[in-house]
Design brief:
mainly alpha; Serine Threonine Protein Phosphatase 5, Tetratricopeptide repeat; 8 helices; about 70% helix; about 0% strand; elongated
Length: about 150
């Protein structure tokens, strides 16, 4: 098994040399988690940042998680939000949903129901069904300033 992981690692290194930036995600995870060749968080984060520089949504996703957890790197809500937003902008549906939640709850960013709905709608359009429920809840509660749903019934 270790030989197969070594071979996979070599192919991933070759892939990033040829400009296939998705390899950075796997190389980063392998280094951070100590899968191969050894645990090296700094190298893993470097790989992820290189992949993010090439607009790889999975690299953005993993970096957002790292900065949220604070296990391998210091917690940094600003970087967490930036990477979360970039992953969503690159089309990562789950992160579009998470960005909608972040805006709705005001987590790592200023609360903004309009942006919450926009990102939840984007995730819904892309087929992420949990977005429908939260979007409906926001509209039902009437929290969105400027929309007809926010007027009090007299």
């Amino acid at each position: 098994m270790r030989d197969n992981i070594k071979i996979a690692h070599e192919y991933l290194l070759k892939s990033v040399d040829k400009g296939i930036c998705s390899g950075y995600f796997y190389l980063g995870v392998m280094a951070i988690e100590g899968i191969y060749p050894k645990k090296d968080v700094e190298l893993g984060v470097d790989y992820l940042i290189r992949g993010a520089a090439a607009n790889n949504a999975y690299c953005y996703y993993y970096l957002a998680l790292l900065y949220q957890e604070g296990k391998y790197v210091d917690k940094n809500p600003k970087l967490e939000f930036n990477y979360l937003k970039r992953a969503a902008e690159e089309g990562f549906i789950f992160m579009q949903y998470n960005l909608g939640i972040a805006y709705y709850k005001g987590q790592v960013c200023k609360k903004n129901d309009r942006l919450a709905l926009a990102w939840l709608r984007e995730a819904s359009r892309n087929g992420y069904s949990p977005s429908y429920l939260l979007s409906g809840d926001i509209l039902y509660e009437g929290n969105v300033a400027g929309l007809p749903y926010d007027r009090a019934v007299e």
